[in-house]
Amino acid sequence: DAGVIQSPRHEVTEMGQEVTLRCKPISGHDYLFWYRQTMMRGLELLIYFNNNVPIDDSGMPEDRFSAKMPNASFSTLKIQPSEPRDSAVYFCASSLAGVFVNEQFFGPGTRLTVL
Amino acid sequence: AQTVTQSQPEMSVQEAETVTLSCTYDTSESDYYLFWYKQPPSRQMILVIRQEAYKQQNATENRFSVNFQKAAKSFSLKISDSQLGDAAMYFCAYRSAGTGTASKLTFGTGTRLQVTL
User: Dihedrals φ, ψ of B53, to 5°?
Assistant: First the structure.
């Protein structure tokens, strides 16, 4: 298996622009997580899905952030409009319920820079 | 809400020596899982070792082992025979044992490990 795939790996955009981050979970996994990593706040869970349904979005910072999972093999995290404080590394992770400890497998991350 | 604390922002160890990274957590739950993740400069998050709270035996994975003290809510990571490739950020993480809303990981702030010659 190719593991969790994220695209793009790097994104540089200007303030006010829309940004879309993409994630393909490991085939067969039924949980998908979006995390954000910054120096100030460390690793934070933004939202996660179970069987394509959002379960907990309490970590989404504000209405500018939205996430979708239209099918079991694809998810997007959208920021509109983007702001410089959104600059961070965004990770997607997936896991399979019922498998030992429900281990989360992380993608390589997307480094977002908002100018 | 659960919290995870890593009190050592940075640690250094000489190659071939042993180092212990500290982690404490706060929870009112009795059943949960604990993890150590490694994040090298490539920023890929890699699972190093995991521990189920109901198991008294400490987990071991090759050169990596944990000291799990449930009563003290402590979960330290010991790296033996340190290698240059062990240099990375190490994150301690907590997860409840349930499913659904309990599936999320709560991370500590990380410890940066340097390995010197």
Answer: -65, -25
Residue listed under structure tokens 């100030």 = A40
Q: Tokens 């349930």 belong to which residue?
A: B98
List the single residue in A with minimal CA-CA distance to B35. Answer: A103
Distances (CA, A) of B16 to A6, B62, B79, B83, B91: 36, 14, 10, 6, 22
Pick the closest to residue B97 from B47, B55, B48 (CA basis).
B55
Q: In the structure encoding, which two tokens stand for residue A22, read together?
A: 């993409």
Contact list in B for residue A50 (CB cut-off 8 A) is: 100, 103
Backbone CA torsion sign across B26, B30, B32, B36:
positive
- Predicted confidence at residue A101, as pLDDT, reads 59
- Side chain identity, residue B101: T
Among candidate residues A99, A100, A57, A73, the one with its CA nearest the CA of residue A5: A73
Asked whether the beta carbons of residue B50 and residue A103 sit closer than 8 angstroms, the reply is yes
DSSP code for A13? E
Would you write out chain A's pLDDT as a tens digit for each of its 115 residues? 679 999 999 999 999 999 999 999 999 999 999 999 998 888 999 999 999 999 889 899 889 999 999 999 999 999 999 999 999 999 999 988 765 556 889 999 999 999 9
Task: Answer yes or no: are the C-beta atoms of A77 and A34 closer than 8 Å.
Answer: yes
For B81-97, what is each residue's pLDDT tens digit? 999 999 999 999 998 87
Instruction: Determine the distance in angstroms separating the CA of B61 from the nearest CA of chain A, rounded to an integer.
Output: 16
Question: Measured at the alpha carbon of residue A68, what is the angle toward residues A65 and A72, in degrees to the nearest 5?
Answer: 150
